[in-house]
Amino acid sequence: MATEDSIASRLDTSNLNHVWAQLLVEELVRSGVTTFFLAPGSRSTPLTAAVARHPTAQSIVHVDERGSAFAALGYGRSTGQPAGWVTTSGTAVANGWPAVVEASVDGVPMLLLTGDRPPELRDTGANQTIDQVKIYGDYVRWQVDLPTPSTDIDPEMVLTTADQAAYRARRVPPGPVHCNCMFRKPLAALPDERSYGDYLSGLQPWMEGTTPYTQYKESSPTPAEENVRAVVDRLRDVDRGCVVAGHLDTNAEAAAALDIAEQLEWPLLPDVRSRLRLGASPGNRRVPYVDQLLASESFRGAHAPEAILHVGGRFVSKRLRQFIAAARPNPYVLVRPDPNRLDPDHRVTHRIESKVETFREIALSLPWDETGEVSSWTTSWREASDRTADTLVEFAGDTDELSEPLVARLVAQHIPADHALVLASSMPVRDVNRYAVPDGARIPVFANRGASGIDGTVATATGVAVGHTGPATLVIGDLALLHDLNGLGLAADHPVVIIAVNNDGGGIFHFLPIADEEDVFEPYFATPQGRTFEHAAAMYDLDYARPETPETFVDVYQRAASTESATLIEVQTDRETNHALHEELEQRIARAVDAA
Predict the structure, then answer these.
(1) CB 38 within 8 A of CB 60
(2) Which of 8, 33, 399, 450 is the Cys-Cys partner for 207 at CB 3.0 to 4.6 Å?
(3) Residue 438 gets which letter from DSSP?
(4) CA distance 434 to 430
């Protein structure tokens, strides 16, 4: 019997377009896709109405299709679950491309629901019509071109398609899935004077229930124990090895990485997205300042690892990657739950397709010789990291000027425990990885490092906040913020603190050889814009502040982070001064490590 909240009691059967759209959205919600990011448009009207009228679906509307797609990406990053992205036909679909690429490359679940013209209007010159079939190519995990609604097609097809889409978005490796939905007019829920009782009669048990029509049992690869045993036997015969923790999605993965490092008695080298770089962690293996201590040539020369165990995804530090490539460790073991290659320097000798937790369970079940001691090898890594920490503490205590490295340290030191941290590509993600204090709050860190673009970053941070169900702090450069000014309108309705480091251009280009080409560098690479963001914040009703000292920055940030409103904090720096400061810090750190 239909309950008050069941689909049977609220199904609008006046129009077949809307019947199909309601079935699709209901089944997606049952399959765990409960949040939808929508951009206004006509051809997607049945989908939009189905989401808007669903009693439990969460809907977030944003006028910019590109921004709403990045918000869906951010939601998938923070939850591990796909959000729905609903958009109309034509170039609106193409505006999802950057977010689709990022989600695909970095394994973020996402569900793309695009409205489209019916077959008779394709390739006819009909307005707002492009070829949307397989428009995202190989960047989606699965794609389907749903036919125009018809009673000649069983309604169960809509349900099984929704179930497959949700499953494929989550299945390892997770990523985007595209459902292209054709609709004929009328697009609004105008009665078409037909009864669909008989058409839907076979769905009566489903309509009275709450479970998906097709229930997938998700599984992940479990490596053969003998394969793990063989690899672990190779690893534990090595004294001078390192565990590299790349991008990890969960605290369980991070805990497993720590356990493995403790068992091997090796130093743990954590990436900023590993959930181990920021915040105090148990154990004494962690080397938070690995990127900076490798600035010491003597340290690099004396610490070439004989073996590497790399768990999770890629890591930010180019210096660490080059260090490992030069050392040519054998074995180099990579443990990830998907089959994709992650080996840009072609050094991986053993590839284990497994969750980090599963690898840990098998590895720790083997017999081990327990020493409980910290080896001199690990101690030397920790002491070098401690010398780096001392140098950075001295630097922070000696300056009364706000700088980009100091912003990275202050954010990590003062970010509240209920926040998520989102870092823009280019300098912010690198600076936090290099300079952040390691003993602040242990918070999740997100960054679009799949394709490492700078577009859609504000929208991504907003999506992270929605999925995190709590506040988010975003650190972003001025060019990336200019790329996504529309995102401020989306962020305005959520507790997002945006820290815009404005050095009037592309600061990262100062670290590249092109910086010496004076005739082209400023106009073509640094691209100064001469803009500040006070009026942009006012346009979208964001609180705004422009602190000029470390003390006022901390005060402004703490107040902004404690509110439920959105705030834009602008920090103005100088690109050339920033480049010189980075070089000075690396030299000071190298001297301190050499002396130790």
Answers:
(1) yes
(2) 8
(3) S
(4) 6
